[in-house]
Amino acid sequence: MNNMHKGLLACIFSFAVLSISCKKKIVDLVNPGSGGTAVAASYFVSPTGDDNNNGTAASTPFKTIQKAANSVLPGDVVSLMNGTYNSASINITRSGTSDKYITFKAFPGHSPKIFAINIWNALIINGSYIIIEGIELEGNNTNLTYNGAYAAYTAHAAGGPALPAYNTNGISIGGPAGESKMPHHIIIRNCKVHDFPGGGISSIQADYTTIEGNIVYNNAWYMVYAGSGISILNPFNSDGVTTYKNIVRNNIVYSNKTTIPWISLTPNRLSDGNGIIIDVNTRPYGSNTSTNPYNGRTLVENNVSYNNGGSGIHCFDAKHVDIINNTAFNNGQVVGYAEIFSNKCTDVKIINNIMYGRTGGACNSNFNNTNVTYDYNIYFNGTTSIKGTNDKVVDPQFVMLSTNPAVANFSVNMTSPAIDAGTSTIFSAKDILGVTRPKGAGVDCGAYEVK
Fold it and tell me: Which of 12, 191, 216, 289 could form a disulfide with 200 if both were Cys (CB 3.0 to 4.6 A apart)?
């Protein structure tokens, strides 16, 4: 080969290397943090699919959600297609990253349903940076009876095993001792969770849990562990942040209740069945001492919670909680708790809410609290244990007062005294429908901003 040919080949080789290098740099600019790796994958699941498929197209979906959960990497999206998924517990253990959440969601235009029967949990989340969105989960309450559940409780109290059939939970983030992998940064959004004999959506030994825009109803009826519709129990400190880390907002929660005694109580009695509960964040799970309390704040805003067996919103043995712009109606149906109940709490603000008590019931409670503030709230049709300077006892004038979800409307009429009655010192910036506050001269009380 002569020198001219050698020079030409060297030039061509140098140009090729430069071209590859430039292409890599372009890829890295388009996908920051990718290091030149492939973009996030999309997976599809259908009850008519096959787990031997590649799952990467709507025409070749997996059959089970678990197969997809075992396949995902950070940034991946799993789309669930129409149909009912009957399976064993779905356990999500893989994690995303702070900039690449793993998402499980309904395929656009589809309405997938996970139906769970005779298992402990329909969906377990023990990975971090996970989003669950737009999925319906249904338990087996309609096929169970109180007599059957009470017989199972009696057998368990006598030394027999607890039966999963009467204790199935909907979405379980983390879990009790030996089960939680201490997950963090979990978002449960726009789901429907209903008719579970156990709890609806629970977060135990987790951090940065956001539960928003869900409809949660008819849960906790038959379990022996005193569950609720939405609960956050014993969160842990994954970092040193002291601002909002757990958020429960824009949910509609109703008809959650307990009818079976809590097996751990002596004497055995009914407990909980709340719409929403922020439960024991003053100490780690299983500890009786406050050696490592939770340092983050919890925000409960813009929820509508009604006709539950326990409180509409319950706060027990907790610190650093803001309960603002919620609407609670006709709760305490089974255990007699107040509409919004703070018990053994410190540094809790209960502001801009509407509490409409059941007949003969209580609007609020101030039992064994320290530095718990009630103010700028509307109370009606129930007793009050405490009233802040700017609280009002007056009919909020709901558009349609009902416990029937088909007709109930807990927005208020244009003449309501709840309009402009809240404070702008601490309030929800948007209402349950996404309307920016304040819309009028001031912030409205309750979950809806009217004018």
Answer: 216
